[in-house]
Amino acid sequence: MSGVPEGRGATATSPPSLAHLLSAKRRFLVPATLFFLTYYFALPVLVGYAPELMATKVWGNVNLAYLFALSQFGMAWGLAWLYVRRARRFDALAEELVRAAEARARAAEDAGARP
Amino acid sequence: MTTTLWMFAAFVLATLGITAWAAGRSRSTAGFFAADRQISAWQNGIAIAGDYMSAASFLGIAGIIAFQGYDGFLYSVGWLVAYLTVLLLVAEPLRNLGKYTMADVLAWRLRPRPVRAAAALATLTVGTFYMIAQMVGAGTLVALLLEGSGITYAQAVVGVGVLMVSYVVFGGMLATTWVQIVKAVLLMGGTLLISILVLARFDGSLVRFFDAIGQVTYTEQGVTVTRDFLTPGLRYRPPYGPLELVSLGLALIFGTAGLPHILVRFYTVPDAQAARRSVVWAMGIIGAFYVLTTFLGFGAATLVGRDTIAAHGGTNMSAPLLAKALGGEPLFAFVAAIAFATILAVVAGITISASTSFAHDFWVNVLHHDRELYPGEEVKVARITALVVGALAMGIAILLGPTANVAFLVALAFAVAASANLPVLVLALYWRRFTTMGAVCGLTTGLLASIGLILLGPSVMGARAWFPLENPGIVSIPLGFLGAIVGTLVRREPAAESAHAGLLWRAHTGAGAE
């Protein structure tokens, strides 16, 4: 997929654990959340505190304020698309974890049944 | 006139048909509250859009843009971007941990009775405010849209109330979901049609359309003025305008992920993956709609004009009057029917989420310690609650009368959701140390702070307001978080801390989810 190194993910050498999944999620979710909050709040802040700048005409009567507002739609859709793509990897990791846990539970049960 | 009545009747018949079909299917408890978790991702996505795009969105946003230009469009932006909070932080863990309500997530590792009682109180408060706003709006609009038919405000309120209660009581979540879907499809169809017709009036040229937006003429205090409606500042001006914008943005971005009637929708799908996909569907539809509000709002400003709209019922009539200008009586009737459908679907959604919270959180869990006294009690209590909530909303809406200023109630609902619900939801999911005391303190602080600041603000006190902002979010959201954090730091709760690992496991793998 993308160029992000998968060093700390579940590999053949390290058994999958919840910590791997959580840190993989954190590596995506924390920057993504900070990014969209910053990008979004830049709009009311700029419109509120730099109205002259935002009234700059860019194309015909279309100004910076409107284009920036419109770009927020693209930003939201784009980030949602990125997340959904990335989440497939989280899903695969989660599934692996659940299978491993079930296998462990079965093994423990078998051990318990044969005293 | 008669066309409008026929279209109203057609929608009512169609939705009652859906209710009858649903009544035959959803018999179990999970059926009533969560449509047996059999709603698919795309269906739920459309239903979320239907639940979300209230009359305030469709009629209100067109009106705000028509009257205040670009500043109104900022609402459109916030209403979409807010879904990133839902998508990234809330939807999937909520689906994995809960059964029917937001409080399920809190009760997972905290002491259930206090947190459920506090969460139910916040949910019912949001629901009541939102509902009264929608009911007053509904009464005014239906009376206005059906002008000349002899239908009064009170009759319109009762009509809307009876229908919404019928959907919920007889059809449960399944009927409510399909009413949302039908309404969302109608709304998108109507909006797209109007947008195309608006652009056609400018010979299909966006350049001409935006040029016209640059020179909107209207009367202000008896003087004719021409303004560029694309320039910011028509509504939000110094000294408090910029702060108001940020505060509004905070309430939208953090409030959406705390709106009970949106959160319950995630329990109707089979699993967290479906919940995620449904948010993406919803974002596609909601975003497309709000981009098109450019044509609805600025179209009304340029083609109908502020003066004409003000003389024919005020801001909320902007979209219907634009439809009339573009396509005459038939299009007006169609848009009026869409507005009617919009109101009905939204009030039905709020009614079911309020009833679910009361029956599931308060009645069964708080009063009866998580036991039904007899099979089917939970659903029965929810049905009775829906009747009571409906009757109360009708009564209050009739008492307040058609001239009541209710717009601030929607702002209040978002503020409570953002200041009370969201902080505790996020902390319960992501902060190991979080405690029952923290949840109860956070919920009550957020609730009291948002209600208090609105009561002391300009929406209620006018020019003599103690608090300068209409939107309290910028103060009440930090207070909500502060309450939750201080409440937590008072005393450790080892049981809740040690249960956090289990919560993380289930929230992020989905193992054992309902």
Record keyword descriptors for this entry:
heterodimer; A: 115 residues; mainly alpha; two-stranded antiparallel ribbon; 2 strands; 75% helix; 4% strand; rod-shaped; disordered N terminus; B: 514 residues; Sodium/glucose cotransporter; 21 helices; globular
Explain how this protein is built.
The complex is a heterodimer of chains A (115) and B (514). Chain A has three helices and two strands. In chain A, strand 1 (57-59) and strand 2 form a beta hairpin. Helix content of chain A is 75%, strand content 4%. A two-stranded antiparallel sheet of chain A has the order 1-2. Chain A has helices at residues 18-49, 51-54, 64-113, and strands spanning 57-59, 62-63. The model of chain A is unreliable at 1-13 (pLDDT under 50). Chain B is mainly α. In chain B, 76% of the residues lie in helices and 2% in strands. Chain B has helices at 2-23, 29-34, 41-52, 55-68, 70-97, 102-107, 112-145, 153-201, 206-213, 241-255, 260-263, 272-304, 306-311, 318-367, 377-400, 407-430, 436-455, 458-461, 473-490, 494-498, 500-509, and strands at 216-220, 223-227. In chain B, helix 5 crosses helix 21 (500-509). The longest helix of chain B has 50 residues, at 318-367. The model of chain B has no long low-confidence stretch (mean pLDDT 91). Classes of the chains: A mainly alpha (115), B mainly alpha (514). Chains A and B meet through helix 1, strand 2 and helix 3 of A and helix 5, helix 9, helix 10, helix 12 and helix 21 of B.
Number of structurally distinct domains of chain A: 1
Beta content of chain B comes to under 5%
What is the 3D shape of chain B? Answer: globular
Terminal residue distance of chain B: 49 Å
Question: Low-confidence parts of chain B, pLDDT < 50 over ≥5 residues?
Answer: none
Overall average pLDDT of chain B = 91
Total number of helices of chain A: 3
